[in-house]
Amino acid sequence: MRQATVQNVDAENDGGCPGQCTGQRQALNTYLAKQYAPQDACHCWGGAAETLENSLADFSLAQWGSRLGADVQSLRERGDWWKNTYDPAVGYQRARKADGTWQPGFTPSTDVGFAQGSSATYTWMVPQDVSGLASLMNGSAVQRLDAFFHDENGNWAVKGGSALRNVFAAIGLFPQTPGRAELLVGSPLFPKVEVRRSNGVRLTIEAPATSDTNQYVQSLALNGRNRAESWLPESFITHGGRVVVQMGAAPTDWGAAPVDH
Questions:
Q1: Tens digits of residue pLDDT in 102-115
Q2: Burial (CB count <10 Å: 0-12, 13-18, 19+), residue 143
C-alpha cells in the first residue's frame, strides 16, 4: 500500500531494468499529479501501459484494503485512471505526454507507450471495468473483441498464454477481476477436478460429458442448485462447494440473461 501512496527513494533507480526494476511506482508524484503516466516523464517502459497496470493494481489494493477497514476511496478512484490514456478519437489506449497532448504517429500496432505489447493488445487490459471500456467504445466492443481473436481469413487466432492461465482454462474457471474472488465459467477439459486449498476448503468441478465434441456449457449447478449466471460467487472460493457443468455439442443461451445476484 505504501509503495502506491508515498514516493519511495528508489523510484528512479534503474537497477534491474528493464525487466525487474529496483524502483517501484516510478515517478509516483508525477503520476498522482497528472492522473496518468506521461510518456516523456514516467521513468518507465511505456506511459500508457504503466497507467493501465497502476490502475488495475490500485483497484486491487482498494479491494484488499476495504476488507481491512482502511480508507480506500482514493485508490478506488485511481482504479479509473486508465480512462486518462484512452483516446476516444482513435478508440485505443495511447501514450500521452506531460503537457496533455497525445504521442504522434499512432497506429493500433504501435508499441510506443507500451511494454512487450501493442496498443491493440493493451486496450483490453481493463478487467476491473469491462462495462466502462465497452461504454467508451460506443457499442462496438463485442464486434471489436471478436475481430481481435480472428485473423484476416476469419479463423480463430488465439495463441500463447501463461501456464497459470492454461490451468484455469483447463478446469473451466477463471478469475474475473484481480483483487476479487468471483470466477468466470468456461468449458472444463476434465470430467472431474478437485482443488484442495491449504485451509482445508475443497472446490469440486465436475463436467462428466466433456469431450472434443461437447465443448459448450448447457447448464450449471452450484451445490445442487441451478445457476443462471456465467460466473461463480466469492463464497465458492471462501467456503468451497461443488459445481456440476452440463456440456453439449452446440452453444445455447445459458449465461446470457442480464442477471446479477
A1: 999 999 999 999 98
A2: exposed
Residues of the chain by 3-state class (helix, strand, coil), percent to 5: 30, 15, 55
pTM across the whole model: 0.86
User: In whole angstroms, how far apart are CA 224 and each of 44, 188, 230, 253?
Assistant: 50, 18, 16, 21
The answer to whether the beta carbons of residues 183 and 200 sit under 8 Å apart is no
- What DSSP designation does 229 have? S
pLDDT: which is higher, 111 or 21: 111
Residue type at position 26: Q
All 3 cell numbers of residue 134? 465497452
Q: What is the pLDDT at residue 259?
A: 64
CB neighbour list of residue 70: distance below 8 Å, 6 or more residues apart? 1
> Going along the chain, which residue ranges are E strands?
86-87, 92-93, 173-175, 183-185, 192-196, 202-206, 216-222, 225-226, 231-232, 241-248
Q: Are 189 and 170 in contact (CB under 8 A)?
A: yes
Backbone angles phi, psi at 25, to 5 degrees: 55, 55
| Dihedrals phi, psi of 160, to nearest 5 degrees | 80, -160
Q: Are 249 and 216 in contact (CB under 8 A)?
A: yes
